[in-house]
Amino acid sequence: MKIFSLAYPAVTLMLAGCASFTPDGGLAPVNELLGQRISQSVQRDAADTASRQAQLATLLAQPLSADNAVRIALLNNKALQAALAELGVSEADLIQAGTMPNPRFSFGRLSGDSGVEIDRAVLFDLGALLTMPMRKAIEERRFQQVQLQTALQVVRLATDTRRAYFDAVAARQTVAYMEQVGQATQASAELAQRMARAGNWSKLDEAREQVFHAEVTAQVLRADHNATAARESLVRLLGLSDEHSTLKLPERLPDLPSQVQPVTDIETKALAQRLDVQAAKLETEATAKNLGLIRSTRFVNVLEAGYQNKSATGSSIADGYQVELSLPLFDWGSARNRRAEAIYMRSLQRTASVAVQARSEVRESYSAYRANFTIAHRYHDQIVPLRKRVSEEVLLRYNGMLASVFELLTDARAQIISINATIEAQRDFWIAESELQFALHGGSRSGFVSSLREPAGKLPAADSGAH
Length: 467
Hints:
By secondary structure, the protein is α+β, with helices and mostly antiparallel strands. Helices cover 66% and strands 8% of the residues. The chain has one domain: Outer membrane efflux proteins (OEP) (Up-down Bundle).
């Protein structure tokens, strides 16, 4: 027992030396995963606030791009910093699993007519020492799972930021165009009023132009609010405060690519690359390891041994040892074992469910990506040029006195609708592209919805019976 009492501190020191915190708090594997997916990295909220403010000032001093918007979000979003703090919690659990429990010391003293009797004992948890490798392996897998979940949150934040960025730029572009439309309709309404006074237009024709101008004015107000809401949504994701809330957004969306991005074996790639699938697999493995630990400690879950001595008045010191063992008389561990098996089956079915959902979502995302690409190019390459040609022909006919001013105004209304639909189609393509990357590399969204949408906020169509 003396040899055991001397060997235990050496073993404890050795184990304590092996269990140490990583310098970056477990961020290196997270950044490696992010580099393979979004080509960016994250860092904890630096103590050097001046350095972070300087980086923000540099990025905000120029017109904001989608990539720079993501950089600002990864640097400044406080919800992301809270998620990174979860890594520290999980790493602490891992270190705790690799650390031996403290020894227990007991002391007893009895006095009576015959003298004083003293009992001393030092107890060590041998059960914890024997199961330490298994418990540490479980926590290592849990730590890896938290790292995957953290990377997933970062990828989701990057996708949300890109989506908000394209929404904000498109809304700004729509406002600029609608303001021009508002000026044009105001001129047409004034023209209608003058022609009605001169007797060239009826009261019905004048009223139609006036109501069209009023409706366009309402659309301008709505577009302006939508631009403000989209901008504020982006500001929240970027984590900007009041002094940094002024963003320099570009005047228009990026140009469309010349061809659709070819993606082969998208389901296989999704199952191999998606972070939620990898996290689900790790959870199942950790649960299986935990099941093995419970089975191995089913009958012996408390085992302590230690050195003990006893001294009494008039007697020499007696040395010995003490063993404490929990006897399985009432609880044979069957309930714990059955519970662990049920948890493992639940984890296994969840992993299968995540895989099924991943394959479905990536198919839907790729379909939305291709459809939005085709729609955006159809507006850009065909509809808008044709609308322009029609407008030029109507203008030529009007100049040649072959068409009336009514045809000219009706054509202008149709062109307004086409331009707005073109902006929305271009926005939806870039959003669909971001969602496809998230479906391939990230994970599932609650209430996942395809980004293939009907053009919203259409202007009122020209009255078919106007003239």
